[in-house]
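Retry 2 of 3 after timeout on previous attempt. Resubmitting structure tokens to design endpoint.
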């Protein structure tokens, strides 16, 4: 093709090109200069425009404008050592107290280390390059750049063993039921010591927020409960109860005409357990549903190595975990949760008033019975 003709054809398509550009684009990039004293929320809206900064802004806006809108139900999946870093008391407790988190799936480790603070045990900032052999010789525990005395572990172990030897614990529990009862005693301890707001489990108890652990044996809490069985304790954890209770929470939210959203920090077992509620409802129980409405994930993992634990929202959609009609609203931001969580917390608390807690834990019998009734109906239809 003659170069002048090629240039002419390219020039002739300019208007169509502009129309296409406007179709796929959003706001023009023309931010104001960042000024001293800008709030975190204003900074996110004005300067976090592209790359993962842009995804973080989209995630914050999704959380506020859609996930929390119209009293939608929000589940939080929590993995990684976040509570030892103080993010429980600085971010998670305020989100729970604001009514912005309705149910939680966490690693047991986050709930165990959360308890240190309620018991008045100190953890310290350090650097990442420490002499680990000297730390061991001096009975100092390290979580990357966090350090604390080995006695913290022994003291927290003793707290759980002493507490769980009590008559109130000599039963079978789902993990949310177990954590709620533990939270009752942690809440009492917080009030006695003037440390209210230091513990996520204490806050969950006060707000009636169920806190599940998807792998109850995979933490120091589970290790101590296992030791108690050797003493003859009757305390048992029933993870199958968790499957039904968590599915009942999501089914109630959707069947009642509301929305179900997931906020995922990291990945791993908590992420999968939270997302599997929809396949449980659709595939196993045979109830008519389409998937979670809104999906917001902060992660530094990647899907091509198998390390993203459930992978992208689009992939999750093929399992029925995410509603395909809502897929465009899903946001995955590839950033460290320790960066994203404080920003999301500040953004949401400044952009929305607090919501009344749903107190889903208090409604477990009602919600589970509703799920059972739906399953009974589908079983009868299948049998016809």
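Retry 2 succeeded. Sequence:
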């Amino acid at each position: 093709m003659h170069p002048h003709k090629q240039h002419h054809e390219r020039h002739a398509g300019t208007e169509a090109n502009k129309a296409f550009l406007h179709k796929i684009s959003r706001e023009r990039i023309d931010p104001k200069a960042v000024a001293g004293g800008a709030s975190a929320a204003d900074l996110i809206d004005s300067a976090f425009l592209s790359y993962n900064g842009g995804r973080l802004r989209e995630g914050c806006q999704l959380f506020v404008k859609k996930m929390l809108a119209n009293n939608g139900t929000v589940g939080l999946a929590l993995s990684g050592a976040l509570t030892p870093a103080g993010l429980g008391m600085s971010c998670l407790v305020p989100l729970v107290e604001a009514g912005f988190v309705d149910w939680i799936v966490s690693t047991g480790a986050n709930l165990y280390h959360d308890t240190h603070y309620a018991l008045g045990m100190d953890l310290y900032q350090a650097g990442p390059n420490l002499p680990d052999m000297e730390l061991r010789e001096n009975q100092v525990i390290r979580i990357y750049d966090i350090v604390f005395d080995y006695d913290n572990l022994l003291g927290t172990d003793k707290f759980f063993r002493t507490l769980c030897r009590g008559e109130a614990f000599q039963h079978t529990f789902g993990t949310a039921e177990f954590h709620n009862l533990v939270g009752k005693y942690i809440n009492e301890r917080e009030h006695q010591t003037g440390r209210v707001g230091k513990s996520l489990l204490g806050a969950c108890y006060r707000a009636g927020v169920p806190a599940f652990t998807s792998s109850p044996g995979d933490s120091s809490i589970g290790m101590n409960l296992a030791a108690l069985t050797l003493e003859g304790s009757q305390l048992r954890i029933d993870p199958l109860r968790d499957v039904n209770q968590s599915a009942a929470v999501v089914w109630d939210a959707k069947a009642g005409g509301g929305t179900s959203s997931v906020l995922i920090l990291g990945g791993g077992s908590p992420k999968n357990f939270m997302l599997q509620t929809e396949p449980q409802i659709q595939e196993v129980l045979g109830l008519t549903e389409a998937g979670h409405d809104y999906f917001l994930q902060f992660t530094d993992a990647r899907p091509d190595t198998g390390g993203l634990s459930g992978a992208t929202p689009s992939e999750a959609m093929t399992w029925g975990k995410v509603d395909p009609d809502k897929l465009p609203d899903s946001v995955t931001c590839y950033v460290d949760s320790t960066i994203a969580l404080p920003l999301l917390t500040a953004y949401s608390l400044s952009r929305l008033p607090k919501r009344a807690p749903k107190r889903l834990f208090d409604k477990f019998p009602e919600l589970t019975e509703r799920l059972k009734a739906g399953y009974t109906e589908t079983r009868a239809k299948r049998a016809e």
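Attempt log closed. The mean pLDDT is 93.
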